[in-house]
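Form 7-S
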Amino acid sequence: MPKAERYQNRIELLQGTLDLLVLQTLRWGPQHGYGISQAIRMNSGDVLQVDTGSLYPALHRLEKQKWIASAWKFSENKQRVKIYRLTAAGKKQLSAERSRWSQLLQAMSGILEPRGKESEI
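Output:
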Protein backbone atom coordinates (compact mmCIF):
# COMPACT_ATOMS: atom_id res chain seq x y z
CA MET A 1 0.00 0.00 0.00
CA PRO A 2 1.48 3.41 -0.95
CA LYS A 3 2.49 5.61 1.97
CA ALA A 4 0.06 8.43 1.10
CA GLU A 5 -2.82 5.94 0.97
CA ARG A 6 -1.83 4.47 4.34
CA TYR A 7 -2.01 7.93 5.91
CA GLN A 8 -5.46 8.52 4.41
CA ASN A 9 -6.68 5.25 5.89
CA ARG A 10 -5.63 6.15 9.44
CA ILE A 11 -8.47 6.41 11.90
CA GLU A 12 -8.95 9.18 14.42
CA LEU A 13 -9.16 7.62 17.87
CA LEU A 14 -12.34 8.00 19.88
CA GLN A 15 -11.96 9.85 23.16
CA GLY A 16 -10.76 7.39 25.78
CA THR A 17 -9.63 4.80 23.24
CA LEU A 18 -5.98 5.79 23.59
CA ASP A 19 -6.05 4.85 27.29
CA LEU A 20 -7.37 1.40 26.37
CA LEU A 21 -4.68 0.95 23.70
CA VAL A 22 -1.87 1.99 26.06
CA LEU A 23 -3.11 -0.23 28.90
CA GLN A 24 -3.48 -3.20 26.54
CA THR A 25 0.00 -2.64 25.08
CA LEU A 26 1.51 -2.57 28.57
CA ARG A 27 -0.38 -5.78 29.39
CA TRP A 28 2.06 -7.44 26.97
CA GLY A 29 4.97 -6.18 29.06
CA PRO A 30 6.81 -3.03 30.23
CA GLN A 31 7.76 -0.62 27.47
CA HIS A 32 9.08 2.89 26.81
CA GLY A 33 6.94 5.50 25.08
CA TYR A 34 8.31 4.97 21.59
CA GLY A 35 7.87 1.20 21.99
CA ILE A 36 4.23 1.71 22.99
CA SER A 37 3.54 3.85 19.91
CA GLN A 38 5.31 1.32 17.65
CA ALA A 39 3.34 -1.60 19.15
CA ILE A 40 0.06 0.23 18.53
CA ARG A 41 1.06 1.08 14.96
CA MET A 42 2.34 -2.40 14.09
CA ASN A 43 -0.50 -4.33 15.76
CA SER A 44 -3.09 -2.18 13.98
CA GLY A 45 -1.56 -2.86 10.57
CA ASP A 46 -0.32 0.75 10.32
CA VAL A 47 -3.89 2.09 10.68
CA LEU A 48 -3.51 3.59 14.15
CA GLN A 49 -0.63 5.95 14.83
CA VAL A 50 -0.24 7.76 18.11
CA ASP A 51 1.69 11.01 17.96
CA THR A 52 3.97 11.93 20.85
CA GLY A 53 1.77 14.98 21.46
CA SER A 54 -1.06 12.61 22.37
CA LEU A 55 0.89 9.68 23.83
CA TYR A 56 2.93 11.40 26.53
CA PRO A 57 0.02 13.37 28.03
CA ALA A 58 -1.92 10.07 28.11
CA LEU A 59 0.99 8.31 29.84
CA HIS A 60 1.20 11.10 32.44
CA ARG A 61 -2.57 10.95 33.00
CA LEU A 62 -2.54 7.14 33.39
CA GLU A 63 0.39 7.39 35.79
CA LYS A 64 -1.41 10.04 37.84
CA GLN A 65 -4.41 7.68 38.08
CA LYS A 66 -2.00 4.94 39.27
CA TRP A 67 -2.95 2.64 36.38
CA ILE A 68 0.66 2.60 35.20
CA ALA A 69 4.00 3.18 36.91
CA SER A 70 7.33 4.24 35.46
CA ALA A 71 11.02 4.00 36.19
CA TRP A 72 14.11 5.36 34.47
CA LYS A 73 16.39 2.72 32.96
CA PHE A 74 19.18 2.50 30.43
CA SER A 75 18.36 1.00 27.04
CA GLU A 76 20.56 -1.44 25.14
CA ASN A 77 22.29 1.49 23.42
CA LYS A 78 22.95 3.23 26.77
CA GLN A 79 20.17 5.78 26.35
CA ARG A 80 18.25 6.78 29.47
CA VAL A 81 14.58 5.89 28.89
CA LYS A 82 11.45 5.89 30.99
CA ILE A 83 9.89 2.43 31.11
CA TYR A 84 6.17 2.15 31.81
CA ARG A 85 4.45 -0.88 33.31
CA LEU A 86 0.87 -1.81 34.12
CA THR A 87 -0.10 -1.77 37.81
CA ALA A 88 -2.69 -3.99 39.52
CA ALA A 89 -5.14 -1.06 39.38
CA GLY A 90 -4.31 -0.70 35.68
CA LYS A 91 -5.14 -4.35 35.04
CA LYS A 92 -8.50 -3.83 36.73
CA GLN A 93 -9.11 -0.68 34.66
CA LEU A 94 -8.11 -2.50 31.46
CA SER A 95 -10.70 -5.19 32.19
CA ALA A 96 -13.40 -2.53 32.69
CA GLU A 97 -12.34 -0.67 29.51
CA ARG A 98 -12.38 -3.88 27.46
CA SER A 99 -15.89 -4.63 28.74
CA ARG A 100 -17.10 -1.15 27.74
CA TRP A 101 -15.40 -1.50 24.34
CA SER A 102 -17.20 -4.81 23.78
CA GLN A 103 -20.54 -3.14 24.60
CA LEU A 104 -19.75 -0.33 22.14
CA LEU A 105 -18.90 -2.84 19.39
CA GLN A 106 -22.19 -4.68 19.97
CA ALA A 107 -24.14 -1.42 19.90
CA MET A 108 -22.41 -0.26 16.70
CA SER A 109 -23.04 -3.65 15.10
CA GLY A 110 -26.73 -3.33 15.96
CA ILE A 111 -26.87 0.00 14.13
CA LEU A 112 -24.68 -0.91 11.16
CA GLU A 113 -26.14 -4.36 10.63
CA PRO A 114 -29.62 -4.47 12.20
CA ARG A 115 -31.27 -7.87 12.19
CA GLY A 116 -34.20 -8.26 9.82
CA LYS A 117 -33.59 -4.97 8.00
CA GLU A 118 -32.14 -4.60 4.55
CA SER A 119 -29.18 -2.31 4.10
CA GLU A 120 -29.97 0.98 2.40
CA ILE A 121 -26.39 1.47 1.21
